[in-house]
Amino acid sequence: MSENNKKLEIKKDRSKIITNPFQLPGYEDLELSTQILIKEAKKRQIEVEILDRKENFIALRKGKKVEYIKQATKTSKDTYISVLIMENKSVTKKVLQEKGIRVPQGEELHSMDEVKPILKNWIQKPMVVKPKSTNFGIGINIFKEGAKKEDILRACKIAFEYQDTILIEEFIPGKEYRFLVIGDQVCGILHRVPANVIGDGKSTIRKLVEIKNQDPLRGYHYVTPLEKINLDENAALFLKQQEKTFDSIPQKGEIVYLRENSNISTGGDSIDYTDIIPDKFKNIAVQACKAVGSCICGVDMMIENAQDANSNYGIIELNFNPAIHIHCYPYKGKRRNIAGEILKLLGFC
C-alpha cells in the first residue's frame, strides 16, 4: 500500500471512530475489549493485523516492533506460570498468604463424600461455595447470612456440576471491587453491582428487566460495555428467597436484586471508583499481582468500607484475562483509557 493510501485509510478509520461511541465499524464481531485496543492503536498509527477473529488474536506493528495479543490483555508480558497460578484459586490463595495478603479462609473438597464430614463447621456461617477454577460467577453460591445444611449441600452439588474440585470459604463482608493492574499501577477500579432493577410501582420485574435491557450499552457476548440481564433459573431462585417472582411488582424506588454475584457477565452494573479508593488498597492490589508474577491482572477485592484505609479487606480472586471494556465504558462514572496503558506497557509509547 502506498504512503498516500495509508494516510487515506487512517483518515477513514479516524472518521469512523468519531461517529461511533464504542463499537469500531468493521470489527463489531470482536470482543469489545479487543475493539477498544484496536481503536487506540489506529489512533496512534500502529498497524493492526487480525490473526484469528474467532479467538480475538491480533498483531500490532510499528516499525520493526511487533507484539502479539489475544483478547486485549493476554500479552508477552505475562508468563505462562503466572496464568496457571491465577487460574487455580487454591494456589492463588496460598501464594498471596505467603506475602501477607489477606484471603478468605476455607476448605478444598473433591467429592460430596468429603463435604458431609465438614458441614458442621459451616452451618449458619456466612460463606461462599464455588468451583475451584471457573470464571464469570459460574456455579457460585453466596450465603451472607449463613445457610442450613440442605442449602449448603445443594450449593456444593451445583458447584460440582462445573468442576470436580470446589471451595467452601468464609464470606468477607463489604462490597466487591475490581482493581485493574497494569504494570506497577492500578489503572481502573470498579464497584460491580449485581443485576438489579428499580421499581416504578406499576411494572413487573419482568417488564423492568425488559426496559433496562433496551439500553444500547447492553448486549450479549462482550461486544457491548454491559451484558443484558437474563431471567434464568438462578434469577428465579434468588427472587424466591425474597418471596418474589418475575411477575412481582416492586414498589416505586425499591431496588430488586436478581443475583448475589456481581459479575458484569450476568447483567451487573459497573461504577467507577478509581479516584475514591484509598491508595492503601491500590498498593495491595499491585502487590498481589507482583506476588504471582503478573503484569496485567484483575484483582477482585472485598472491602468493608472503601473510603476507610483501615477497613477490613480480602482478595477473593485474581484474573489473568481481565476485560478492559468495563473500565472504558462504565455504567456510571469516569471512562478510563485502559488501551493506552496497555500500549504503553507493550512499548508502543
UniProtKB/TrEMBL annotation:
Key word Membrane present: no
Domain ATP-grasp, first and last residues per copy: 93-347
Protein name stated in the entry: Glutamate--cysteine ligase/glutathione synthase
GO aspect biological process, one term: SOS response
Protein source organism: Garciella nitratireducens DSM 15102
Keywords: ATP-binding, Ligase, Nucleotide-binding
Pfam family, one: RimK
Zinc found in the keyword field: no
PROSITE patterns named in the record: ATP_GRASP
GO molecular function terms noted in the UniProt entry: ATP binding; metal ion binding; ribosomal S6-glutamic acid ligase activity
Family matches, as InterPro entries: ATP-grasp (IPR011761), ATP-grasp_RimK-type (IPR013651), ATP_grasp_subdomain_1 (IPR013815), GshAB_ATP-grasp (IPR040657)
Cellular-component GO terms for this entry: cytoplasm
Top-level taxon in the UniProt lineage: Bacteria
